Amino acid sequence: MYVLKSFKYRIYPTKAQTTKMERTLDLCRWVYNETLAYRKTLFETEGKSSSKYATNALLPTWKVDKPDLKEVFSQTLQNVQERVDLAFKAFFRRIKAGEKPGYPRFKGKGWYDSFTYPQMGFKLDNVDCTPDNGQIVKQWYLRQ
Questions:
Q1: What pLDDT, on the 0 to 100 scale, is given for residue 84?
Q2: Count of beta carbons in the 10 Å neighbourhood of residue 85
Q3: H helices within 66-131, ranges in order?
Q4: Can you tell me whether residue 139 is helix, strand or coil?
Q5: Which residues of 26-50 are buried (b: 16+ CB within 10 A; e: fewer)?
Q6: Pairwise CA distance, residues 113 & 144, whole Å
Q7: Across the strands, what pairs with 35?
Q8: Rg (the chain; Cα; Å)
Q9: Which helix (H) or strand (E) holds 132?
Q10: Most buried pick, 20, 39, 79, 135, via CB within 10 A?
Q11: pLDDT tens across 10-53, in order?
Q12: Distance CA 24, CA 114 (A)
């Protein structure tokens, strides 16, 4: 049986790393809002829902239009779109159950505070984050 594990570690980043993480959070928030806008427009105009795989196909186009997105790992951006997908699934589940649905909301500055690296073995500002180094970083939280 395959078991997923999630690790959270408190980190003490340098100023340069903090700047890079804040930039990553801003770009992830932008992708979240763009994905939400795309799905909202599609739902309101055509009455259709889009899958996370269909929205993942939009990322290469967005990277051409907004080259800064190339600074963020593609799987991190795909995880952002997965969050939007989960928000819509919860929305539709609540509608079906007859509960107050609560449409997914756009994220303002400061309301998107985490990002995820689904794989290990990457480097961030020359810090090796592999298990051998004891610095496994799966999910980073940056709170002011």
A1: 94
A2: 21
A3: 74-96
A4: strand
A5: ebbbbbbbbbbebbeeebeeeeeeb
A6: 9
A7: none
A8: 17
A9: none
A10: 39
A11: 778 889 988 999 999 999 999 999 999 999 999 889 988 888 89
A12: 9
Considering the chain, what percentage of its residues have pLDDT values greater than 90? 50
Residue type, 23: R
What is the C-alpha separation between 115 and 80, in angstroms, rounded? 8
**Token digits of residue 74:** 């593609």
> Which residue reads 């009455």 in tokens?
47
DSSP string, 10-63: -----HHHHHHHHHHHHHHHHHHHHHHHHHHHHHHHHS----HHHHHTTHHHHH
DSSP label at 68? Answer: G
Alpha carbons 47 and 8: distance in angstroms, whole number: 39
CA distance 87 to 110: 19
Of the candidates 94, 31, 33, the residue with the CA atom closest to the CA atom of residue 65:
31
Place of tokens 């993480």: 21
pTM confidence score: 0.77
